[in-house]
Amino acid sequence: MKGSTVRDAAAQDKDRRLAALPNRQVLADGVYEQIRMLIMNHGIAPGARVNIDEIARELDVSGTPVREALARLESEELVSRLPLRGYRVTELLTLREVDDLYALRLMLEPPSAAKAASAMTDARAAALETELQTCPSAPAGADYEAYKALTAHDTRLHEMILNFAGNSAVEQAFARTHCHLHCFRLLYNQPFGEQTIIEHREVVAALTSGKPGLAKKAMSSHLETARDRLLSRF
Ligand SMILES: [Zn+2]
Description:
The protein is mostly helical and 234 residues long. It contains ten helices and three strands. It has two domains: 88 residues, Winged helix-like DNA-binding domain superfamily/Winged helix DNA-binding domain (Arc Repressor Mutant, subunit A); 137 residues, Four Helix Bundle (Hemerythrin (Met), subunit A), CATH 1.20.120. 74% of the residues lie in helices and 4% in strands. Helix 9 runs antiparallel to helix 10. The structure holds zinc ion. The site of zinc ion has 5 residues, from helix 6 and helix 9.
């Protein structure tokens, strides 16, 4: 009798913890998104120290979800940890860093597009078309919220192509650069959304035609145009 009471109590305790999980996750995600938006909108200036207590007060939460969010943002290199002194927001990419980043992308992505074209299947072509449909036109606004969808699509499309090329080391190297996030942070109010979407359609058309040379050329041209657009804004 006593044993079953102990078991019931343990089960109830487990239920309570499980029931609390989704809310806790929603809270953690919400805090992460809000701090991320502050950084992307330069609400916290590049290079500035992050005041954990102040953010917790403003968002009306405890320090725990703020610290969890900062750990996630550190993995995206939006903040960096200061030894024993919390976090600071990372600096924006310099012209040289953008140029280097695109040089790396040009080494990795056009040959991968060629491989992905050689390995094209009906299912993969359908997945690429579906991805294009997630962002059929450029966002109307010029704020972070509006451009978030375009950047998320941009990231997913490039990751999908690298995935179809089948080299996981290349996929990981690309993911570690967080290139879309950091270029977007530099220039989220760019007027080039529509152009990006047109170029993506060209890349997908070349890939689904199954012609490696064409796919390689379309990817190179997309990356070179994107790089020049960005560099012209410095
Ligand atoms: Zn792109």
